[in-house]
């Protein structure tokens, strides 16, 4: 069920209504039922099978890990209580044995679930690449991969559950003993379509608690929902008219110069409005139930470095990679050994930062690959990884240069320069992720600088992309509004809470204005693909 | 508990208000398909709104189906001839299922005796979303409308959603939203009871070529492009199913269903034979107005506006007159004229008569406006000083219809005979005081006294090829100055300006431009009274009556009937005689001819009439040859 559809509105409305009508102890059951109804509607019975496999296998694996841990602890305590504590060496061996068993269970859980993700999401890509290679070498025929389906939200719930399993393995918290609780965590419908990648310890308490109706909370949630739709329907879909045309037909139509630059720039706004708009809808819907999800965006276009950008964009993905890829690499024993050697070779500073640099590179390569099953995402990952890792590696060097040239990094001017620089780097990266292929992306980058004709802005060329003057005006104003709201949020003001506390007539005027703006100036309906969010198939 | 109740009430009010706002947005952003004579729009919004205004149970018949229905049968014309009331509920490419639902909707408030169904619905290509929306959206909200949406729109998701929630498609109209969307009504009077009239008289191709369609399965579009109709185009079998449903509905309501092939050239034998099979199965008898029989007497040279696909005003008049007789004779229905409850029809008919004449005037404006103007000048020649000057040339396409005017003004020169020469003339009170023809430029200055003895200085210049035309009175320049004959009319009483005109006659299409209002609409060369019209061979005793709109009615004293173009427009058609219903067919203009004679002009079809054997026959008004003239004494 698409987020922008009548069935979703009706579904959400009914779910909220039932949620607050039923006795509090039934609220969890309502959410679970709603989540599975939502999932069935969206993906069919085949997709249900996959999410159930992940839910049950992860639940069972976590309990097994706990049992192994508890078993070890019980033996140690028993021996101690009996006045016969286990000797240190034996305890160490026992601990290692338990750890090995725990790791095996963890490995099985990871392999099963990441394996499902890899096959379903990347299977076509791998098969296609192998097929292409075999055909190039004259070795093979066509391998059929058309039967692979992609269940709704598979990337998101896989990462969530595997993060949970790893946390249980690390003894960060106890596993859930209630399958239904855990199933709700996995399938919770507001976040299943496009995240965020929630953490069990953040969400479980909220999901299991009962919630009283909260006027301000509900209103703020509703406003956030409306804001999300506004961003999606008024900005993202509208910008998409030009973006989609230029990216799809770059080769055949020969677009150059400002047109390509505008397409890349607008794509930055399109994907931001689309993804963060989707998040706002998800968060708004969840807030209506009194459940507050982990923020996934924090004014990303105010980032001063690419590293910071990824701390503001798709925060939960970056955070997941940090906790489950970056730190494990950096803190592993092997890394420690290598680091010693590197320090001897390259000195203290570089010896220290090379491992984190490598870990950053791997993390962001995986971020790139996470986005999709195509070589362009691999290169996208490499592109981002290069900037993030060199940022880590050269941090001292940059500091030394600023000192040498007396550049004060705290001035507004320098910060503005950093923001613009970061935006440009991200914009170039966008070409890689959005282009039809890596070759096309590189071609577009080159084309940006050829035939840079400013007259294009006024000679009517820009009216040939499905946008007329009024559309451009709306787009510019809406983007300005988006940046203003981000600016206000950056300074700690939550506008929707301010509105939620205003008097009824003003609140209602805001609600009606937002709804009518979406209905009237939103881009949807005849001639448009109804709200397929960019991240829906991740 | 109390808080919960307050919250529920607030939520309910919020939702209700939101619903109202959304409904208003839906209404004002949905296009209003406004009726206009000039555009391609059939005016669905205007049509169905007008239908809902009809008093309950006031309609004797209904017409449903695609565009040939409402281009052919015009209920107001039928009412004028027979007093029988009806309404066209058809639409462009209206599928039979949409016809069914409109019939069902109509039967909520009407109880007609007969329903005419255009069989053109059997011949239709793939359903057209826009046309289905135009049929569905004007329906008032009801369970029937929901059912109609389900049956008519389910084949296409976008169509279905739009029919349910028009903003789905039309929200983007905010960019063109304007006054026309707020004033949701027709800009012209809407008196045709669902019919769409095209006051266009020209066809692009001649009748011989049109016949190809019946023989060779070709179709000719409005711009003349010929294309082959795909022989594989089958008839719609779902039309047969829905016609069956229409018949069931009518049987339940004691209504007779009459399938009709309205006049069009877009039929072929195969379709006709296949439709007949469906009709036989349903036990329905077809009224066939196509083919050789041509009972309505359609003249395909003049009676279509799009090369034989649909009828224009002339074809519509003929078909409506046919139906007036047919309905009256077949169902023996009484006239409702003057009856209580039918005041709307009677009032609208009066307005319709004037509107019809005005529209025809506009159609034939070029000719009639020019004739009316010049005839008024001639009629009031004694009051005027008429100054004339030619620029470039006046002769090549000089209209013979103005010869009589020139004679009235005292002009001696044959205007058709001074090719590319300069020419000036002054007619003072109907007497020619000065007239010069010269190959070179003529400049003429003179002083002239008006009736109050005030002196005026007048300058006239005429240049032939490459020259100018100026007419100045007291240093005021009044000539329009276009190529052709420039005329300025001055009031003899005080020397004030009355009017100026320029008759461009160096191109085949005569153009006419005038300053100041002097449309001559009420210029009557003859007073009302008894006359004899004769041409030396035959004669007719008549009574001439003046209508309030500047036209004449001419009554044959022997029969007491009015001369009528009778819906005809082919040269050689005999001018009929019938009762005056105030329609254009019985309206005439009488213009000055030469030698003290006159000639007749039919307001209905812009043709003239020749006296023959004590009656009249129609003739095309050929500006470049002799116009048949008569003595009226």
Provide structural commentary.
The complex is a heterodimer of chains A (538) and B (633). Chain A is mainly alpha-helical. Chain A folds into 3 domains: 208 residues, no CATH class; 159 residues, no CATH class; 132 residues, no CATH class. Chain A is built from 21 helices and no strands. Chain B is α+β, with helices and mostly antiparallel strands and 633 residues long. Helix content of chain B is 31%, strand content 22%. Chain B has 18 helices and 27 strands. In chain B, the strands form 8 sheets. A 6-stranded antiparallel beta sheet of chain B has the order 10-9-8-15-16-17, with helices on one face. In chain B, strands 2-1-3-6-7 form a 5-stranded parallel beta sheet, with helices on both faces. In chain B, helix 5 runs antiparallel to helix 7 and helix 16 packs across helix 17. Chain B starts with a helix and ends with a strand. The chains are: A mainly alpha (538), B alpha+beta (633). The interface between A and B is medium-sized, with 19 and 19 residues.
